[in-house]
Amino acid sequence: AQKITQTQPGMFVQEKEAVTLDCTYDTSDPSYGLFWYKQPSSGEMIFLIYQGSYDQQNATEGRYSLNFQKARKSANLVISASQLGDSAMYFCAMRESGYNFNKFYFGSGTKLNVKP
Amino acid sequence: SQTIHQWPATLVQPVGSPLSLECTVEGTSNPNLYWYRQAAGRGLQLLFYSIGIDQISSEVPQNLSASRPQDRQFILSSKKLLLSDSGFYLCAWTTYGTAYSGNTIYFGEGSWLTVV
Fold first, then answer.
1. CB–CB of A48/A61 below 8 Å?
2. Are B94 and B32 in contact (CB under 8 A)?
3. Interface contacts A/B by beta carbons within 8 Å
4. In chain B, which residues have their Cβ closer than 8 Å to the Cβ of A7?
5. Which of A2, A50, A115, B26 matches a 20 to 30 Å C-alpha distance to A96?
C-alpha cells in the first residue's frame, strides 16, 4: 500500500485566494513526522512545514498551515493568500519511527498553478 | 551551517555508458544520506539510503549502485545506463533522530540525466 497519497495531480487557484492540497498517509507507527515540500520548476526541494504525530496543534509557518486530522490520517497543506510564486509542485512526505525511521516516503505530488 | 553539493548538474549519456553522480555534505557529521530519482512530472522514488560509511540499503533492484567511501560523501553509479535511467536525481541528507523530532530532509540541487 502507498505510504503517502496525494490525489490531486494538478490544482488551479486564483491569486490571493486560499488553496488546500490533500495528503493522506498510512502507518501503524504511533510516532511519525509529516512534512511538506515545494519544488519550483528549477528542481530544488524547499522544506515548508512539519507536523509531529504527538503535536496537539496544527503547524503553521507564515502563509502555510497544516490541517492535521490524525484519526483520518490526513495532513493537508493550506496556503493562504496565494501568490504567483507559489506555482510549483508540492510534495507531502512522512518519516516513520521503528525499523524504517531512516526513510522519508514521498507522495506523487500536486502541481499548483496560481492564476493572476 | 550545513550545505549539500551535488554534481554534475546536467549530463547527457549514451545507452550503455557508465554513470557517476557525486554528493557531499558539509557542516555536519554522520548524516543519513539518500539518493532519490524523479521521473518527469512524477514523485520521488527512494533508490538508496545510508546510515554510515559503507552501509548502503537499496530500495529498488536495478542497474544502479551507491557507495559511501567517506562519512559525508555519497556516490551513485552505473556500469551501463539504460534509457529508463533518465530522470532527475536528488541527493539528500538528514540527521539522526526520532521520526517525530522534526528533523527534515535536505536536498541537493539535483542532477538532470538524459540517456540517449
1. yes
2. yes
3. 70
4. none
5. B26
> Which residue type does B75 have?
I
Question: Which of these, A103, A99, A37, lies nearest to B32 by C-alpha position?
Answer: A103
Could you read off the pLDDT of A68-112 as tens digits, one per residue?
A: 999 999 999 999 999 999 999 999 999 987 766 678 899 999 999
* Total Cβ atoms within 10 A of residue A17: 12
Check the CA dihedral B3-B115-B53-B92 and report its sign: positive
Beta strand pairing status for A110-115 and A10-14?
parallel
Question: What are the phi and psi torsion angles at B85 (to 5°)?
Answer: -80, -10
Dist CA B73 CA B25 (whole Å)? 7
Among B40, B20, B14, residue whose Cα is nearest residue B91: B20
| A70 part of contact set with chain B, CB < 8 Å | no
Spell out the per-residue pLDDT of chain B, length 116, in tens: 778 999 999 999 999 999 999 999 998 888 999 999 997 767 898 999 998 999 999 888 678 999 999 999 999 999 999 999 999 999 999 887 666 667 788 999 999 999 99
Tens-place pLDDT, residues A30-79: 889 999 999 999 888 999 999 999 998 999 999 999 999 999 999 999 99
